[in-house]
């Protein structure tokens, strides 16, 4: 293992790599070198502004694939950030192709991941339910947009979703693993956390919009219930919205909503039916 030190932070790699691109920033205040994606991620400062940097090309310590593949995934994601531009998605400022890899620079998202630490989940549940409805609606709108562009929102996990307890926002920080549909899961398995992947994602089958419906249901359960149990006893909202969520989480994809638009329509109708005294902050 090769160790580099930048702004007092340690970076461990499997092989030597040129990290001099970091010298163009005033400060590196956060380092994530343990990701399984093959990317190095940094919190950096330039002219006193915080930015988020994602880099592929180095042999990171927990990545089992090739650097060529990690670089190509980032390159493939670049046009998607433009197509999918949305307030629920982190904003890509620009990218630079370097001799040893590819660098993407984003707005910095000041927030906490949805998990896995219990204190993160507690902070999430302390957000007034009114704002959690808004956070969900915005993310659902984004997933619906992706679906209209024939994309499956693969790769989503608690760590890739950041929530801010001050402005009550929920932001997706990575779309590197999004794939076009229909997706042949017998050729390459769909990536993502088991909390957000439906049962068919582990089978040799063709995948489509029903996966996105399942992800929407999983998000609703994460923000308003208990994703580990999916039980009504842990649900904080109406029975109507619980039924909508459970339908989206059904193991049989044919029993879920037809598509994300159908889920979103039913969800919004359910929110409208909640008495004001149950949701007003």
What report would you give on this structure?
Helix 3 packs antiparallel against helix 4 and helix 5 packs antiparallel against helix 6. Strand 6 and strand 7 form a beta hairpin. This protein has two domains: 106 residues, Phosphorylase Kinase, domain 1, CATH 3.30.200; 168 residues, Transferase(Phosphotransferase), domain 1. Helix content is 31%, strand content 22%. The chain has a five-stranded antiparallel beta sheet with strand order 3-4-5-7-6, with helices on one face. Strands 8-10-11 form a three-stranded antiparallel beta sheet. The longest helix is centred in the middle third of the chain and has 20 residues.
SSE map:
Layout: E1 2-6, E2 9-13, E3 27-32, E4 39-46, E5 49-56, H1 67-83, E6 92-97, E7 102-107, E8 112-113, H2 118-125, H3 129-148, E9 151-152, E10 161-164, E11 169-172, E12 179-180, E13 183-184, E14 206-207, H4 209-224, H5 239-248, H6 260-272, H7 276-279
Antiparallel strand pairs: 1-2, 3-4, 4-5, 5-7, 6-7, 8-10, 9-12, 10-11, 13-14
Helix pairs in contact: 3-4, 3-6, 4-5, 5-6
Task: Count up the helices.
Answer: 7
Identify the CATH homologous superfamily of the largest domain: Transferase(Phosphotransferase) domain 1
**SS elements, strand count:** 14
List the secondary-structure elements in sequence, H or E. Answer: EEEEEHEEEHHEEEEEEHHHH
Instruction: Give me the CATH fold name of the largest domain.
Output: Transferase(Phosphotransferase), domain 1
Unreliable parts: none
Reported CATH architecture of the largest domain: Orthogonal Bundle
- The amount of beta strand, in percent, is 15-25%
- Summing up helix and strand content along with how strands pair, one would put the structural category as alpha+beta
Rounded mean pLDDT is: 94
Radius of gyration: 20 Å
Q: Main sheet: which strands, in order across? A: 3-4-5-7-6
Specify the helix fraction band: 25-40%
